[in-house]
Predict the structure of TetR/AcrR family transcriptional regulator.
Amino acid sequence: MVKKQLIMDKALELFAKQGFEATSVQQITDHCGISKGAFYLSYKSKDELIISFVDCFMKQIIADIDSSVKDCSHSDDMLSTFFYTTNKAFQDNSTFAKIFFKEQTHTVNENLLNRLSYYDSKVNDIILYIIDHLVLENEKTKFDLLICIKGFMKVYVDLFLIYELPLLDLDILTKSLVEKTNILAKYSTIPFITKESAQILQDHIEGTDNNSKQIIELIEQLIIEIEEPIEKESLELLKNCLQSENNSLAIIKGLLENIKNNPQCKWVAYLIREKYSIQQ
Amino acid sequence: MVKKQLIMDKALELFAKQGFEATSVQQITDHCGISKGAFYLSYKSKDELIISFVDCFMKQIIADIDSSVKDCSHSDDMLSTFFYTTNKAFQDNSTFAKIFFKEQTHTVNENLLNRLSYYDSKVNDIILYIIDHLVLENEKTKFDLLICIKGFMKVYVDLFLIYELPLLDLDILTKSLVEKTNILAKYSTIPFITKESAQILQDHIEGTDNNSKQIIELIEQLIIEIEEPIEKESLELLKNCLQSENNSLAIIKGLLENIKNNPQCKWVAYLIREKYSIQQ
DNA sequence: TATAATAATGACTAATTGGTCATTTGTCAA
DNA sequence: TTGACAAATGACCAATTAGTCATTATTATA
């Protein structure tokens, strides 16, 4: 629906300037040139807009990062691909990124907090997948490495978002981050985060895990929305695969290839890839 | 004034739960058991409370970190001292720390943002002082190292603040962070942040620099407030030193020793130390 | 005890908030 | 042209906000 998109686009600008809380529905509707009532025809509440907003961006970004990493033919490229794609994603969606990093730690909204930590755990999964393909000096530093990689990301992204430093060369940034990570992997010996404390971190996330039923619902929705015949058919076939639990990974993998480049399908492709641990 | 302290103590609890914006003056006064009018006898506005609040904690914390680093007899200890003192400070003031890290990137309040970036630049100064005493593989990675150290701090502090991971062993955390930093210093070759971009970062901070006049005003205020005779006399003498610009660093250094352990004097001691680049 | 000075109160204002709903406007087919 | 239905409006509501100020309570002084 075109009105929904308009509201999101305009809300994006206001949220970036002021954050979620400080932006009123009135401001959004004024900025859209529509009435307050019209807003509530598109979204049940301000909260629903915020959640949709975060979902929309995070699904794209995470699916992009995951697919770029999982598509690496050599495990040597993973780290570099990860840093490049991640920085690129935040650069391309810099207005959203600004909001995301601000609200991540701040918001009081319980609903939103759960969403954010859900996506955070997905990022952790991707990074841990990469770390498992690195050669570590001490296997026990694994979770410290995870934390450090996230620290690198956070702090370099801050440079562009808070200090508005112009991003000159994404390639150098990537190389610099890859080097740092590899150095830590190679020479770190003193872990701080144990497996147990890592478990505590993971337990924080409530199980919004994706069972087949939820994925099938997503697929059905997409089948209605999507025009392209190949994507449509692939989705139908994927739906069948998920319903009859006897299915070939090869077929699923092939079908995913057909849909994964369609922006609307990215997220569902990611969920299925994750469900069946499909890589490379 | 005792009422001011009461308000701060109670506000601390509410701010930690809800943040600055979401906490109303009414809530604070209810929590204090005083009337709304009484609040405005102590603080001109909610904004003034917030600024005082941040000032109060940050001055203590930064003065502590700086003095612990500058007091190191061996430059080998600096890094470890820095990480230990910093983590300890955030642990001891964990309620404040939680607020600080949340508001740092979020707040819309221009006034507050300026304060926060002022203190941020002070932390940068301390870290750069430490880095100047490290042996770097490539001198050009200096500013990247600064950024990484800040990333380490941010992300490990988050563990305790957001995920509420119990902090078991501060010594191990310190050792782990020291190792990581030393490794990066020793092996990093690819800088991303140039001297020029570092300059851009520094230029962000408006010059709230401390000239003698401001420092003297602070001293005069302290002389009135403070009881202890030695601190009082030392402050008087320091004031004279600052007024007559012909002064001996040795005398100033000695006088600072007399006052630096008094919580009320810490900040002014820090400012003087910084003004005359007094170390060790 | 009487007077002056200070401290504290809480009802009040004006503005803003998210959200509602009776009313109006626009767009069709008949 | 009419009538039916959907889309859009914005005045309105109850709640909440920061901040004020005439009034009252408390304390110190004479």
Q: What stands out?
A: The first helix of chain A runs from residue 2 to 22.
